Amino acid sequence: MNRLLITGLFIYSLFSSVSAQQVAVLQYEGGGDWYSNPTSVPNLVSFCNQNISTRLDPKVATVEATDPAIMQYPFVHMTGHGNVYFSDDALLNLRNYLNAGGFLHIDDNYGIDQYLRPQLQRLYSDEELIELPASHPLFSVAYTFEKGLPKIHEHDGIRPQALGIFREGRLVLLYTLESDLGDGWENPEVHNDPAAVHEKALKMGANIIKYVFEN
Q: In whole angstroms, how far apart are CA 197 and each of 177, 191, 215?
Protein backbone atom coordinates (compact mmCIF):
# COMPACT_ATOMS: atom_id res chain seq x y z
CA MET A 1 0.00 0.00 0.00
CA ASN A 2 1.29 3.47 -0.83
CA ARG A 3 2.31 5.62 2.11
CA LEU A 4 -0.25 8.29 2.96
CA LEU A 5 0.40 11.65 4.51
CA ILE A 6 -2.69 12.56 6.52
CA THR A 7 -2.84 16.01 8.10
CA GLY A 8 -6.20 17.61 8.72
CA LEU A 9 -8.02 17.74 5.40
CA PHE A 10 -5.02 16.62 3.32
CA ILE A 11 -4.47 13.08 2.07
CA TYR A 12 -1.53 12.46 -0.26
CA SER A 13 -0.61 9.35 -2.23
CA LEU A 14 1.98 9.90 -4.95
CA PHE A 15 1.51 6.98 -7.29
CA SER A 16 -2.32 6.88 -7.17
CA SER A 17 -3.10 10.59 -7.10
CA VAL A 18 -4.90 12.20 -10.05
CA SER A 19 -3.08 15.50 -9.53
CA ALA A 20 0.68 15.90 -9.38
CA GLN A 21 2.32 16.06 -5.97
CA GLN A 22 4.76 18.85 -5.21
CA VAL A 23 8.01 18.49 -3.29
CA ALA A 24 9.78 21.31 -1.49
CA VAL A 25 13.17 22.65 -0.45
CA LEU A 26 13.46 23.68 3.21
CA GLN A 27 14.41 27.26 4.07
CA TYR A 28 15.97 27.25 7.53
CA GLU A 29 17.46 29.79 9.91
CA GLY A 30 21.08 30.29 10.95
CA GLY A 31 22.54 31.88 7.83
CA GLY A 32 23.43 28.68 6.00
CA ASP A 33 22.97 28.52 2.24
CA TRP A 34 19.74 26.52 2.15
CA TYR A 35 19.32 27.74 -1.46
CA SER A 36 22.45 26.00 -2.80
CA ASN A 37 22.18 23.54 -5.71
CA PRO A 38 19.16 25.27 -7.33
CA THR A 39 18.91 22.81 -10.23
CA SER A 40 19.28 19.64 -8.17
CA VAL A 41 15.74 18.89 -6.96
CA PRO A 42 14.06 19.98 -10.23
CA ASN A 43 16.42 17.60 -12.07
CA LEU A 44 15.58 14.80 -9.65
CA VAL A 45 11.86 15.39 -10.12
CA SER A 46 12.26 15.25 -13.89
CA PHE A 47 14.30 12.04 -13.69
CA CYS A 48 11.74 10.37 -11.43
CA ASN A 49 8.81 11.32 -13.67
CA GLN A 50 10.64 9.93 -16.69
CA ASN A 51 12.04 6.77 -15.15
CA ILE A 52 10.05 5.50 -12.16
CA SER A 53 6.50 6.49 -13.17
CA THR A 54 5.98 9.27 -10.65
CA ARG A 55 3.75 12.25 -11.34
CA LEU A 56 5.53 14.94 -9.41
CA ASP A 57 4.88 18.61 -10.09
CA PRO A 58 7.93 19.87 -12.03
CA LYS A 59 7.78 23.12 -10.06
CA VAL A 60 9.65 22.65 -6.78
CA ALA A 61 8.38 24.74 -3.86
CA THR A 62 10.30 26.49 -1.09
CA VAL A 63 8.93 26.22 2.44
CA GLU A 64 10.19 27.83 5.64
CA ALA A 65 10.83 25.55 8.59
CA THR A 66 8.30 27.52 10.65
CA ASP A 67 5.55 27.45 8.02
CA PRO A 68 2.56 25.15 8.73
CA ALA A 69 2.16 24.90 4.94
CA ILE A 70 4.92 22.30 5.07
CA MET A 71 2.07 19.84 5.59
CA GLN A 72 1.29 20.19 1.88
CA TYR A 73 4.56 18.54 0.84
CA PRO A 74 5.05 14.81 1.39
CA PHE A 75 8.78 15.13 0.64
CA VAL A 76 11.01 18.00 1.77
CA HIS A 77 14.70 18.33 0.88
CA MET A 78 17.28 20.27 2.86
CA THR A 79 20.90 21.05 2.01
CA GLY A 80 23.68 23.59 2.57
CA HIS A 81 27.29 24.16 3.59
CA GLY A 82 27.03 26.32 6.69
CA ASN A 83 25.16 27.12 9.87
CA VAL A 84 21.78 25.60 10.64
CA TYR A 85 19.46 26.75 13.40
CA PHE A 86 15.90 25.71 14.21
CA SER A 87 13.91 28.00 16.49
CA ASP A 88 11.48 26.43 18.94
CA ASP A 89 8.65 27.20 16.52
CA ALA A 90 10.53 25.54 13.68
CA LEU A 91 11.27 22.46 15.78
CA LEU A 92 7.63 22.09 16.74
CA ASN A 93 6.49 22.55 13.16
CA LEU A 94 9.01 20.06 11.79
CA ARG A 95 8.24 17.52 14.51
CA ASN A 96 4.50 17.77 13.84
CA TYR A 97 5.15 17.36 10.12
CA LEU A 98 7.32 14.28 10.51
CA ASN A 99 5.08 12.66 13.11
CA ALA A 100 2.07 13.18 10.82
CA GLY A 101 3.70 11.26 7.96
CA GLY A 102 6.03 13.76 6.31
CA PHE A 103 9.59 13.03 5.26
CA LEU A 104 12.74 15.16 5.43
CA HIS A 105 15.83 14.36 3.36
CA ILE A 106 18.94 16.25 4.44
CA ASP A 107 21.95 16.15 2.14
CA ASP A 108 25.24 17.50 3.43
CA ASN A 109 26.66 19.79 0.77
CA TYR A 110 29.93 19.64 2.72
CA GLY A 111 30.17 21.60 5.94
CA ILE A 112 26.68 21.31 7.43
CA ASP A 113 27.34 18.36 9.74
CA GLN A 114 28.78 20.16 12.77
CA TYR A 115 25.82 22.55 12.84
CA LEU A 116 23.10 20.07 11.95
CA ARG A 117 23.65 17.35 14.53
CA PRO A 118 22.85 19.50 17.59
CA GLN A 119 19.64 20.64 15.88
CA LEU A 120 18.59 17.07 15.16
CA GLN A 121 19.20 16.23 18.81
CA ARG A 122 16.82 19.05 19.71
CA LEU A 123 14.31 17.84 17.14
CA TYR A 124 14.13 14.33 18.60
CA SER A 125 15.99 14.14 21.89
CA ASP A 126 14.83 10.55 22.41
CA GLU A 127 16.10 9.27 19.05
CA GLU A 128 19.53 8.72 17.55
CA LEU A 129 20.73 8.75 13.97
CA ILE A 130 21.01 5.14 12.85
CA GLU A 131 23.13 4.12 9.88
CA LEU A 132 21.18 2.24 7.24
CA PRO A 133 22.98 -0.94 6.14
CA ALA A 134 23.54 -1.70 2.46
CA SER A 135 20.84 -4.37 2.77
CA HIS A 136 18.17 -1.75 3.53
CA PRO A 137 15.41 -1.57 0.85
CA LEU A 138 16.32 2.08 0.25
CA PHE A 139 19.26 0.84 -1.80
CA SER A 140 17.32 -1.54 -4.03
CA VAL A 141 13.74 -0.26 -4.34
CA ALA A 142 14.25 1.00 -7.91
CA TYR A 143 17.99 0.75 -8.65
CA THR A 144 20.46 -1.51 -6.90
CA PHE A 145 23.36 -0.10 -4.90
CA GLU A 146 25.04 -3.16 -3.46
CA LYS A 147 27.44 -1.13 -1.31
CA GLY A 148 24.81 1.28 -0.04
CA LEU A 149 24.99 5.05 -0.45
CA PRO A 150 27.25 5.97 -3.40
CA LYS A 151 30.07 8.48 -3.25
CA ILE A 152 29.36 11.31 -5.71
CA HIS A 153 31.95 13.96 -4.78
CA GLU A 154 35.16 13.36 -2.87
CA HIS A 155 36.02 15.70 -0.02
CA ASP A 156 37.90 14.17 2.89
CA GLY A 157 38.21 10.55 1.80
CA ILE A 158 35.53 9.57 4.31
CA ARG A 159 33.03 6.91 3.34
CA PRO A 160 29.46 8.00 2.62
CA GLN A 161 26.77 7.26 5.18
CA ALA A 162 22.98 7.15 5.04
CA LEU A 163 21.74 8.00 8.53
CA GLY A 164 18.11 7.80 9.56
CA ILE A 165 15.73 8.71 12.33
CA PHE A 166 12.87 6.27 12.85
CA ARG A 167 9.58 6.90 14.61
CA GLU A 168 7.45 3.85 15.44
CA GLY A 169 9.41 1.85 12.89
CA ARG A 170 8.98 4.40 10.07
CA LEU A 171 11.91 6.25 8.55
CA VAL A 172 10.96 9.93 8.92
CA LEU A 173 14.31 11.59 8.27
CA LEU A 174 17.22 10.59 6.06
CA TYR A 175 20.58 12.33 6.38
CA THR A 176 23.04 11.58 3.56
CA LEU A 177 26.58 12.44 4.62
CA GLU A 178 29.89 12.49 2.67
CA SER A 179 28.11 11.64 -0.57
CA ASP A 180 26.97 15.00 -1.98
CA LEU A 181 23.95 13.66 -3.84
CA GLY A 182 22.65 17.17 -4.42
CA ASP A 183 25.76 18.18 -6.34
CA GLY A 184 25.32 15.10 -8.49
CA TRP A 185 21.69 16.00 -9.23
CA GLU A 186 22.69 19.45 -10.47
CA ASN A 187 23.16 20.20 -14.15
CA PRO A 188 26.34 18.29 -15.06
CA GLU A 189 28.17 21.39 -16.26
CA VAL A 190 27.90 23.00 -12.80
CA HIS A 191 30.48 20.61 -11.32
CA ASN A 192 31.76 19.06 -14.55
CA ASP A 193 30.38 15.68 -13.53
CA PRO A 194 30.67 12.82 -16.02
CA ALA A 195 27.35 11.49 -17.29
CA ALA A 196 27.78 8.26 -15.31
CA VAL A 197 28.23 10.15 -12.04
CA HIS A 198 25.21 12.36 -12.72
CA GLU A 199 23.10 9.29 -13.50
CA LYS A 200 24.28 7.42 -10.41
CA ALA A 201 23.29 10.33 -8.18
CA LEU A 202 19.87 10.63 -9.81
CA LYS A 203 19.24 6.90 -9.49
CA MET A 204 19.99 7.03 -5.77
CA GLY A 205 17.68 10.03 -5.47
CA ALA A 206 14.96 8.13 -7.31
CA ASN A 207 15.37 5.31 -4.81
CA ILE A 208 14.76 7.78 -1.98
CA ILE A 209 11.64 9.17 -3.64
CA LYS A 210 10.22 5.74 -4.42
CA TYR A 211 10.95 4.40 -0.95
CA VAL A 212 9.33 7.37 0.75
CA PHE A 213 6.07 7.06 -1.14
CA GLU A 214 5.79 3.29 -1.01
CA ASN A 215 6.50 2.80 2.70
A: 17, 11, 27
Cα separation, 187 vs 44, in Å, equals 10
CATH number of 5-214: 3.40.50.12140
Nearest-angstrom CA–CA distance, 198 and 46: 13
Task: List, for residues 108-166, the tens digit of each pLDDT value.
Answer: 988 899 999 999 999 999 999 999 999 999 999 999 999 999 999 776 778 999 999 99
pLDDT digits (tens, 9 = 90+) for 14-60: 333 435 799 999 999 999 899 999 999 999 999 999 999 999 999 99
CA distance linking residue 107 with residue 152, whole number of Å: 12
